[in-house]
Design a protein that fits this description.
Strand content: under 5%
Order of helices and strands: HHHHHHHHHH
Structural class: mainly alpha
Number of helices: 10
Largest sheet: none
Radius of gyration: 24 Å
Helix content: 55-70%
Oligomer: single chain
Number of domains: 1
């Protein structure tokens, strides 16, 4: 199987799997799920390719169920670390200066996502790149109840890690998918960023509406209205 590199060659899913094997996959899923340095790592495309290669019997000879269990555990553990990091670091994370790896805007996006969707964001963020990494950290900063976080974390980890991998396993056995795997991976990446694009467009539209409302002059009151109720303009 040959794939189209969607970024640097060392981030190509097939290259990562062929080089580091199952342990490398688990480490990447763990890091992308809650470590600040993991936001740039491939998530969805890596899981999909993992399922596809299991079906193909290339590079990975472990059974699908075992790989899924390990991936779910890695995803849940990653979010747990992110949550605990957020609880420990607290609000100082929002004042941390930008660097080549850390961008303040990523934390702000995750915070807005968390405030909008509440506990559900822990599940939904699994399917949104970058937000997936920072959302559990923001949940810790916001002191989200640990038991609530744990429940949503487990649900999200199962749906994402297991769901995308199983999807790759079964679609990988479809001839059309195997013959067009490069474009399938591009489509997965494109679909994963759709929620971000939608939120950006909504935010811009809301900003334009607010700007238009603030620029609209108030209608002048006529003398009768200005005089107040029960009063009439003198002839």
């Amino acid at each position: 199987m040959t794939t189209l590199t969607l970024g640097p060659s060392w981030l190509d899913p097939e290259y990562l799997i062929s080089t580091f094997g199952l342990l490398g996959i688990l480490a990447i899923v763990f890091a992308e799920s809650g470590l600040l340095i993991g936001f740039f790592l491939p998530g969805d495309s890596l899981l999909f390719t993992t399922g596809l290669l299991i079906a193909d019997g290339e590079y990975l000879d472990q059974p699908l169920w075992l790989v899924c269990v390990l991936l779910v555990l890695a995803a849940i553990a990653g979010d747990q670390v992110g949550y605990l990091f957020g609880r420990k670091v607290g609000p100082s994370l929002f004042t941390r200066p930008n660097s080549r790896i850390f961008k303040q805007e990523n934390v702000v996006k995750a915070n807005e996502f968390f405030e909008k969707y509440g506990p559900r964001s822990i599940i939904l963020a699994r399917f949104v790149p970058i937000v997936r990494t920072f959302c559990p950290i923001v949940a810790g900063v916001a002191n989200m109840k640990y038991r609530t976080f744990l429940v949503y974390n487990i649900i999200g980890g199962i749906l994402w890690a297991c769901g995308v991998t199983v999807l790759g396993y079964f679609l990988g056995q479809v001839g059309f998918v195997r013959d067009n795997i490069e474009f399938i991976l591009i489509a997965i990446v494109a679909l994963s960023v759709v929620p971000i694009v939608i939120e950006v467009l909504r935010a811009r539209a809301a900003s334009r509406r607010e700007a238009a409302a603030s620029d609209t002059p108030e209608a002048p009151l006529d003398d009768a209205t200005a005089a107040g109720p029960g009063r009439h303009r003198l002839p």
